Amino acid sequence: MELVFIESKDNKYFNKAWQLYLDSFPEVERRTLEEQEEILTDKNFKMTCYVEDEGLISIVFFWKINTKNKIYTFLEHFAVNSELRGQSYGSKILEKFIIDNKNIVLEIEPIVDEVTQKRLNFYERFDFVVNCYEHLQIPFRKDAQELKLVLMSQEKTLSPQEYKELYESMKKSLKRF
């Protein structure tokens, strides 16, 4: 399994990664193609994928978010090719991501059904914990409204001050319009 950094639309895996992104996330949780191309130029954003034998296994899109006192890694989008789910790829990739990154935070949908509960359970197996702050996703597209999500952080919850600083920095980094 190989990690590939996608730095432009010209990368041979861009179209496959983009299709997995479209297939895995609802419109309100994703950018337009034009907005995605724009953020590829941001040094704090990484669009990556894992491949094996030229086949796309997963996408991992993340940001480095700087606050006054800390640098966070915001795992923005993580998805495994639907044909490969249930084969432990997600666990292996997340384990590698945790080794390579510090102060990881991520967002999940509120827990309302079996699918969202399974997602919560998956991240909890990797020591992610729910932060009990009312958290709104920074809109990814011009026509999107804020979306209530659950913010998870690894190993410990954020203090109110840490959360406030992180959220303000996310608004500055992620909002493009």
Jot down its keywords:
single chain; 177 residues; alpha+beta; 5 helices; globular
What would you say this structure looks like, in words?
- This protein is α+β, with helices and mostly antiparallel strands and about 180 residues long.
- Helix content is about 30%, strand content about 35%.
- It is built from five helices and seven strands.
- Strands 1-2-3-4-5-7-6 form a seven-stranded mixed β-sheet, with helices on both faces.
- The model has no long low-confidence stretch (mean pLDDT about 95).
Q: Largest sheet, described in full?
A: 7 strands, mixed
Largest sheet strand order: 1-2-3-4-5-7-6
Distance between the termini: 36 Å
Fraction of helical residues: 25-40%
Give the uncertain stretches in residue-range form.
none
Number of strands: 7
Shape field: globular
Number of continuous helical runs: 5
> What is the ordering of alpha helices and beta strands?
EHHEEEHEHEEH
Based on secondary structure, the structural category is alpha+beta
Give me the Rg, rounded. 16 Å
Overall mean pLDDT stands at 94
Query: Percent of residues in beta strands?
Result: 25-35%
The gist of it:
The protein has 177 residues and is an alpha+beta fold. The protein has helices spanning 14-24, 33-39, 89-100, 114-124, 160-174, and strands spanning 2-6, 45-52, 55-66, 71-80, 104-108, 128-137, 147-154. The chain has a seven-stranded mixed sheet, sandwiched between helices.
